[in-house]
Design brief:
Elements (H helix, E strand, L loop, with lengths): L1 H24 L13 E2 L5 E4 L2 E8 L5 E4 L5 E8 L2 E7 L5 E8 L5 E4 L2 E4 L4 E3 L1 H4 L5 E2 L1 E3 L7 H14 L3 E15 L5 E17 L2 E7 L9 H7 L6 E4 L5 E4 L5 E16 L9 E16 L2 E12 L8 E2 L2 E2 L2 E3 L13 E4 L6 E6 L2 E5 L1
Parallel strand pairs: 1-20, 12-15
Antiparallel strand pairs: 2-3, 3-26, 4-5, 5-6, 6-7, 8-9, 9-10, 10-11, 13-14, 14-15, 16-17, 18-19, 19-20, 20-23, 21-22, 24-25, 25-26
Length: about 350
């Protein structure tokens, strides 16, 4: 009799859990009336409300970079395909007036405060400022690392005192290293040398100094990280391991997350000894208001929510709703927040839902 009762209890518990699981799997929350006319940004490249129109400006396979020139032109840097670097110039009215395409491997190009640096060919493009699409050769100093420390230090001091910013690239490898001989002559021999290349920009001139002097204190990693932050939507969050974070914008208001389904999602391991794992996630839509002048653009986006962890910065009614991802594969595409940028000299605003898409609002 005891075994029979125990079996009945276990069966009942299993039934309850199964019903609960089935109920969660088919949540399909009723959507409040006020959100039923929101436009999906997943299925449309254009969102319209009143006199305001939000349309997709550029899309990229890598993180989009953006920079505002002194003439108030916005430079948008995208990677549409492997080894293709595309730069677009948007004028004050929000029209693309020029573009530049460079074929190179990702590590060979650096975008430094509007200057485009071709590290492999020792050239740079001042196109962002002058419109000149032809690469300019960089003046190289001590490229054979033959200067003594005193001469290197003197030139380094001159560059630091005469440059608004300096891009530092650390290198190591077989390079000609000077070695004194007993006689008057000096010979060189191949040696493994760690050195730095300091690229400085002044007006329309670019200079590179090769140096073996330890400059890590003067130019720490955080300096270069800030220098390469060409992003009108983000800043370096020093309180969170120097991660990039979206600048909070009063124009963005997250309104509601509608849970449609509670489902088990399998993430594959990252390789090696890391096995795959399962997570229970809510699939649904995030509803957001974006204000532009006197109009409010109302949009929704489909994504996945994990309400157990709080890695996104999206809040609804002052409460962080959890971790949002755009996909359910490994690695997950995290949605930290949305970004908004405007400037008094621009007749438009910029908006982004993730690092690989940028929208323009007019």
């Amino acid at each position: 009799m005891f075994y029979i009762i125990g079996s009945v209890v276990i069966l009942s518990l299993c039934t309850v859990f199964a019903l609960s699981y089935f109920k969660n799997k088919t949540i399909n929350e009723e959507l409040p009336q006020e959100f039923k006319r929101y436009q999906s940004i997943d299925s449309s490249k254009t969102i319209i409300s009143g006199n305001a129109t939000m349309s997709l400006l550029q899309e990229s396979t890598e993180e989009i970079q953006s920079f505002l020139t002194p003439d108030h032109h916005v430079i948008v840097y995208t990677v549409p395909d492997k080894n293709i670097h595309s730069f677009f110039k948007v004028n004050r009215s929000g029209n693309i007036i020029d573009s530049l395409t460079i074929n190179a491997r990702p590590a060979e190009i650096a975008f430094v405060k509007g200057f485009i640096l071709d590290k492999k060919n020792h050239q740079y493009y001042p196109w962002s400022f002058t419109g000149n699409k032809k690469p300019v050769n960089i003046t190289m100093q001590n490229s054979d690392l033959a200067w003594n420390e005193e001469r290197q230090q003197k030139q380094l001091s001159a560059i630091v005192g005469d440059s608004a910013f300096i891009y530092v690239d650390y290198r190591s490898g077989d390079t000609p290293a000077p070695r004194k001989q007993s006689g008057e002559a000096m010979q060189t021999t191949q040696a493994m040398t760690t050195y730095a290349i300091l690229t400085s920009f002044k007006h329309d001139k670019c200079t590179q100094l090769y140096t073996t002097i330890d400059i890590s204190e003067k130019f720490p990693y955080s300096y270069t990280e800030n220098l390469l932050l060409n992003n009108l939507f983000k800043y370096i969050n020093t309180s969170s391991r120097n991660t990039k974070a979206f600048i909070k914008a009063k124009e963005i208001r997250y309104r509601h997350f509608q849970k449609l389904k509670y489902e088990k999602v399998h993430f594959s391991g990252s390789g090696g000894y890391n096995p795959g794992f399962d997570e229970m996630l809510y699939s649904g839509n995030l509803f957001t208001d974006v204000t532009y002048k006197n109009d409010t653009l109302r949009m929704k986006e489909f994504m996945y929510l994990d309400d157990k962890w709080h890695q996104s910065f999206i809040e609804i009614n002052g409460k962080n709703i959890g971790t949002l991802t755009k996909n359910k594969v490994q690695p997950p595409e995290h949605i930290d927040a949305y970004g908004y940028y405007s400037h008094p000299k621009l007749e438009y605003a910029l908006f982004t839902t993730n690092d690989k898409k940028i929208y323009i609002i007019k």
